[in-house]
Design a protein that fits this description.
Length: 332
Amino acid sequence: MKALKDRFGRTHNYLRISVTDRCNLRCVYCMPEEGVAFTEASHLLTYDQIAEVVEVGASLGITKLRITGGEPLVRPDLPKLIARLSGIPGIEDIALTTNGVFLAKQAQALKEAGLTRVNISLDTLDPGRFAFIARRGELRRVLEGIEAAAEAGFHPIKLNCVLLKNVNEDEITEFLRMAYEKPLHVRFIEYMPIGHADDNWRNHYLPLSRVLEIASERYSIARREDVKGNGPSEDWEIKGGVGSFGLIHPISDHFCKSCNRLRLTADGSLKPCLYWMDELNVKGALGDTAAMTEMFAKAMDIKPENHEMAAKLADTALSHVPTERRMSQIGG
């Protein structure tokens, strides 16, 4: 097996690694407010085990990693894992997705350990609305985390904003102004039905065509292709501005044809696709390079052509079974 190529000719070089399903927040689009059953620490992959999986992945062409959760910064000693992974031959880029609450205290250590880039979740610029969406935490601490990331030298700094109809869509203009005035890449993300395709999701889903309408009314914009690690984002330049913005629209305009990623959950499952239930637990292959290589090959064999979230929105038949895991249990 010379490369991670699936049945549809897509080459995979990107592994998203969840280090925990725990989080200090309870965002309405990600987790229930109460009653969440977390994985016991003894059932999580250890840092040594994660490194072993990455070593095999790197030998098969994995060059990019993203550390996720839950909230990855609640996992103790995360810089140690970053340092370990950054030393694996073939790994060129390690990014982190975080809610930013704990980032101010760890940004410098993460940078020194070898972290390349950081994405920070920020769904509102209003403290009261932050309390409604996140249910916990303080907006102030997220903003301090953004400042600390800039001071540590991370670039680009990406802000992930999940748009919710009738909740934060009125802040699109403010987020665009932030992208115009500051050296930030603001990414608007469609609300996805991960683990909860219910009426609440349908009622709050907002296609990102609305962002382009507002941006075009207020600015001169143009497509750009040079945002590092842009992945599935459709990126736009605001002419005369300092930053930029992007659109991640898995439902209104899915990007499955260019998918290059796999996911490793905190409890050890290799997922070929975020949306479908199919996953392979790697724990039985630990300590056996050939078996782990075969695990990656099988993930390529079972990866579907697309995720069909748009069909779920239209309430039409699906070809596979959607996952029952919430986003926090898979890795954002």
